[in-house]
């Protein structure tokens, strides 16, 4: 559905001489990706607002998206699968936060495991990305660095005794990225 709307929009842009026919595929890809991302993030923000989890949602999304962009991980074949899996994962994350807030040592245990996984694997080279060796090396370095930066922020929040919801949301974001990396590795979804 999103693709159909974007194709019509891009065709209109070509007819209006705003872009060339040769560039239309690039515009379609970019606009579909942007629309899908906006729909997914918008849905999560609306769910967070309705459930009163705005702080959790914003912190989770900030930490998750900045890390996921660098780690890669499991990808579904179709957008609707990704959309439903993302919404389901977010709902699980909110339930997991309740458990982790009640049992912080459990959260730190899972967080430690997740950091180790990301530090070892770094990035999964998905076939759609098809990074060369230099790009993969840089992506792994960036993933490891962002993980350590997020871990540093978590450590500062803990030391300053800032509300544990921030710690839980960022921890769950790191754990989610590590889980996605493991799934991609297990099903061999990489080049």
Question: What does this protein structure show overall?
Answer:
- The chain is mainly alpha-helical.
- 80% of the residues lie in helices and 0% in strands.
- It has 7 helices and no strands.
- α1 packs across α2, α2 (24-51) runs antiparallel to α3 (54-71) and α3 packs parallel to α7.
- It is globular.
- 27% of the residues are buried.
How are the SSEs placed, and which strands pair?
Blueprint lengths: L1 H14 L8 H28 L2 H18 L7 H24 L1 H18 L11 H27 L4 H23 L5
Uncertain regions: pLDDT < 50 for 5+ in a row? none
Shape: globular
Give the amount of beta strand, in percent: under 5%
Number of strands: 0
Q: What is the CA-based Rg, rounded? A: 19 Å
SSE sequence, one letter per element? HHHHHHH
Class by alpha and beta content: mainly alpha
Report helical residue fraction.
over 70%
Q: How far is the N terminus from the C terminus?
A: 29 Å
**Mean model confidence by pLDDT:** 93
How many separate helices? 7
Largest sheet: none
């Amino acid at each position: 559905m999103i693709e159909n709307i974007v194709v019509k929009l891009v065709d209109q842009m070509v007819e209006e001489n705003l872009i060339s026919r040769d560039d239309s595929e690039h515009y379609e890809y970019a606009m579909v990706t942007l629309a899908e991302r906006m729909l997914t993030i918008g849905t999560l923000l609306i769910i967070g607002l309705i459930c009163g989890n705005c702080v959790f949602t914003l912190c989770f999304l900030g930490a998750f998206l900045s890390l996921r962009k660098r780690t890669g991980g499991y990808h579904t074949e179709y957008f609707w699968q990704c959309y439903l899996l993302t919404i389901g994962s977010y709902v699980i994350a909110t339930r997991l936060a309740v458990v982790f807030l009640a049992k912080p040592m459990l959260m730190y245990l899972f967080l430690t495991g997740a950091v180790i996984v990301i530090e070892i694997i770094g990035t999964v080279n998905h076939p759609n990305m098809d990074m060369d060796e230099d790009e993969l090396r840089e992506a792994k370095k960036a993933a490891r660095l962002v993980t350590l930066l997020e871990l540093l922020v978590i450590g500062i929040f803990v030391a300053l005794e800032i509300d544990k919801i921030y710690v839980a949301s960022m921890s769950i974001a790191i754990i989610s990225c590590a889980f996605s990396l493991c799934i991609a590795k297990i099903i061999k979804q990489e080049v």
